[in-house]
Design brief:
Strand content: over 45%
CATH topology: YmcC-like fold
Distance between the termini: 41 Å
CATH architecture: Beta Barrel
Oligomer: single chain
Number of domains: 1
Helix content: under 10%
Largest sheet: 14 strands, antiparallel
Shape: globular
Number of strands: 16
Radius of gyration: 17 Å
Structural class: mainly beta
């Protein structure tokens, strides 16, 4: 892999490293996609092309704010035709009030496969409802493994700074014009080493600025804007059903 390809791969990863989807709105159980046969499709354009689809099944609702579902699907990405990949989605989603957990397959099923981690898709909102501009959410961090899970790879630490809510604005989404909150924060990753397709690649520290557009009517972050080294990326929810 030449230096140009490595550089473009690092840029692709910086866009793919989306914030953790660890918490959600208390209204998640009543969201339009949270039913058997429900689907969410996500796409990114620009230097990075990404397509991801999540399908909901085995949906169970115990109370209006307690529910669970099996989420399966896929994620494909390509960068300027030079770097591409395809991974499966396979998670159990559990909503308990204002908290949503996403767990991976049990050992012995598909735990050793390089499944796409849904924590990378920050679409399900925040731990408490957004009420006004200036509202803040605490900094977060999590660790994940990049590359072939059968190879020795140093876990990657993703850190997100304190999130600040901006003034509510009307934006165009796949569900029409919606009034949404921009939530801005800085995100960084520590330097690490990843094994990708048999090639060991040292990854430097990556710093980016993120804006999540959370739309209460959809209970989703319908658009995420990423700024990294003077370049911009956008990942949007393209369809919900």
């Amino acid at each position: 892999m030449n230096n140009l390809t490595k550089k473009k791969l690092l840029s692709a990863m910086s866009v793919l490293l989306l914030a953790v989807a660890g918490e959600a709105h208390a209204d998640m159980c009543s969201a339009r996609f949270f039913h058997n046969g429900g689907e969410i499709e996500i796409a990114g354009s620009g230097m990075l092309s990404i397509n991801a689809r999540m399908a909901f099944s085995q949906v169970k609702k115990s109370t209006p704010d307690e529910c669970q579902a099996h989420v399966r699907g896929f994620a494909n990405y390509a960068l300027m035709g030079l770097v591409s990949g395809s991974n499966d989605l396979d998670h159990q989603m559990l909503v308990q009030g204002a908290k949503t957990s996403l767990s991976k397959p049990q050992p012995g099923r598909a735990a050793e496969q390089a499944n796409f981690d849904m924590r990378l898709l920050s679409i399900f909102g925040y731990g408490t409802p957004i009420q006004s501009a200036g509202q803040r959410f605490p900094a977060q961090s999590f660790r994940m493994t990049l590359g072939d899970p059968k190879q020795a790879t140093t876990p990657l630490t993703v850190r997100m700074g304190e999130k600040t809510v901006g003034a509510r604005q009307s934006i165009q989404t796949a569900l029409g014009q919606q009034s949404c909150w921009p939530v801005r924060y800085a995100r960084s990753t520590d330097a690490t080493v990843a094994n990708i397709r048999g090639v060991t690649i040292p990854l430097p520290q990556i710093q980016s600025q993120i804006t999540d557009w959370f739309c209460p009517q959809a209970n989703l972050v319908m658009k995420q804007e990423i700024e990294y080294s003077g370049q911009r990326g956008v990942i949007e929810v393209k369809s919900v059903k």
